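Much of what follows relies on a compact textual record of a protein's fold. An example makes this concrete, so a full record is given next.
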Amino acid sequence: MIAAMIADIVDFARRRAALVAIVALVLAVAAGLFAGNRLVIDTSIDRMLPSDVAWRQSENALDLAFPQNNDLLVAVIDGQTPDLADRAARDLADRMQAEPTLFTYVRQPDGGPFFDQNGLLFLPTEEVEKVTQQLISAQPLLGSLTHDPSLRGLFEALALFVSQSGKEGAAIEQLDSTLAAIGDVVQGVLDGKPQSLSWQQMMTGEKPEPRELRRFVLTRPVLDFTGLEPGGKARAEIRRLAGELGIAPQNAVRLRLTGPIALDDEQFATLREGALRATIISIVAVCAILFAAMRSVKLVGAILATLIAGFMLTAGFAALAIGSLNLISIAFGVLFIGLAVDFSIQFSVRYRDQRHRQGTMPAALRGAAETIGPALTLAAGATAIGFLSFVPTRYTGIQALGWIAGAGMIIAIALNFLLLPALLTLLRPRGEPEAIGLARATFVSLISVSLEVPDALLPSTIFCLPERAAWTI
């Protein structure tokens, strides 16, 4: 009964080929336009997860209690000296705070007014005493620089210190490290290799550790989840501000971006860069398989038209029923093409076989529908049920994929029984002069049958043989 019903549907599509093709293609184009205008991509991972489970409620409560640690974009600034890194981080943070439309929250975890006032208190007691003594010893120099914080003021202070020390070698020796540091910078400039003077190193006489050459700026950017890179605008703005501030390697300062937002954006950018290449390779591979199986431009054209129409109708269903695609449900396109093209290949190959056997197109289409239609219906139904089994889950990302992919399988099998026969009728591909199958593999089937096979397995063994070999036996 199912075979006869499918055959009647295919016969209807053949008799009303022009009408069926026009209606199907018009609906496909309308669905594609509707999907293009309404269907959006939501790259928010949070909206893919259920909000009413206990662990998600705890996570949301933690984010509300500590919003400064949620969805962070981190600017890492490395400088040749601690002073350069600190000044670059401070300037960048100030510029970012002036743009609340892109950065809702900006802070320096290792700097800012609080650390300017209380930073020394975080050092061990021994280091605090050491730094205090050094500051006391350098008080005359610091006092002079306060009145004239320029290069001229620095050299005048040094000259005054040397002149007042007279012939006291011990007093002058205190300036050895300071004069050596200044001399290295001056010599570097004269050699065409500009260097920076670290006031911290000059005051302490010690070379800074690598961690002291690095500063951080943390921000919560305004994210745009309609694009594949939600933090793309914020990252671009940070790099623009850094360029205006001269934060660049040629100025002995380097900027890098990290944190959850930057890492996610990099992954999405990699996906976007590889998407075009993967799409082209997939299309070429599908066309190669189709030509190898069909050996007819008209058959391949009918299959591709059916496949594209099914994809557009499925996208239209997604726009109407769901409204947006997430990072999981966006995979429906790959799933649809990979599965739906199999239905078309199976139907078309069986049509070719029936065309050789029956001779006429009407008989070949009906024969293909009767012989392989029930199997394709069963396969499509089982696949659709498998996808629709995702629907009851509370994980919205998988749930959306279940709805879209399940509906796509139903659309695909319907078009294979309506649009594909209609297009074959309109295109009228040539008949098949030879039997369909791998004639060179027939001897393999004959050898397998000649082996001693238990009687209970013989029917299944013959069933697995190519149709031509089984008929020969």
Q: What stands out?
A: The first strand starts at residue 40 and ends at 41.
